[in-house]
Design a protein that fits this description.
about 350 residues, 14 strands, single chain, about 40% helix, Rossmann fold, alpha/beta, 2 domains
Length: about 350
Amino acid sequence: MAKVLMKGNEAIAEAAILAGCRFFFGYPITPQNQIPEYMSKRMPKVGGCFLQAESEVSAINMVYGAAGAGARVMTSSSSPGISLKQEGISYAVGAELPLVVVNMVRGGPGLGSIQPAQSDYFQSTRGGGHGDYRLICFAPANVQEAVDLMGTAFDLADKYRNPVMLLGDGMLGQIMEPVNMPQARTEALPVKPWAAGQPGRNERAIINSLYIDPNDCEAHNNKLNEKYKVIEENEVRYQLIDTEGADVILVAYGTMARVCMRAAKEAQEKLGLKVGIVRPITVWPYPYKAVFEAANQPSVKAVVSIEMSCGQMVDDVKIAVQGIKPVSFYGRTGGVVPTVKDILNYLSSIKEGK
């Protein structure tokens, strides 16, 4: 199939439709607005349903209802809007409902800025809402990868009966890049005998996350936790870039990883420093083993977490490295994107032992 030039948000929306998504409920907020705009035009043409809810809270509860009826459904928002959806996401996890959430992160806290950031990492990888729970969370670095991961996101949501998040940022959502769109899904969607309204169902479908008896609630949490262990064993994704024999290992995801790739090349040319990169593609489950193995080389002198935040993923990097090498952090926040020059200056200070 020939490549087409598409904006990130629109490409993600089209990829969701091609993956079989037929229900979208959302509410506008910059910088993800092109997703609902695109869905409003495309969904009626494929026999789907687009509805702009009166709020983010309403939208996520509509998603809960459609997922409970067995539909492939998604929503999207940006940082403050995702915060408003957190209660509904927690409910969906508790009820074991498959759905997809896209977050195009903007600067925060509060209303912050409308520029790209990675300051929702804690929210995305630590549950975000109340209770013990996890989301499978993808962090694509370019539009093509985001498109490719959308089908995977829906499939894993169905496989594990768990919400999946695609964690982007304003840069990914707004940039235009050539992409190969996948073929439209033709095979039947997975059968969901647990869902309400399924053909042939005689008994009531109970879609619920309420357990009054604490022993029942504990048993349910333990069941969910066993599922998360299976996800951790099978769904870790990452990319290693020139890590063998590196002097310094950078750990970066999403847009920031792209900047680091250029910085690593220039570090070799200008500083004589070999820089390798570990790029998490899933930020949960996190590639702890890959980060540890990259750091645990005699050549490696330092590990650096590079982020568009005040430092959030660096906690996972430290857990992964287990104290075998020094771990530091460099980042910009509030919607400011670190430049190649910024990273080179930081790498220069490491080389000079500052």
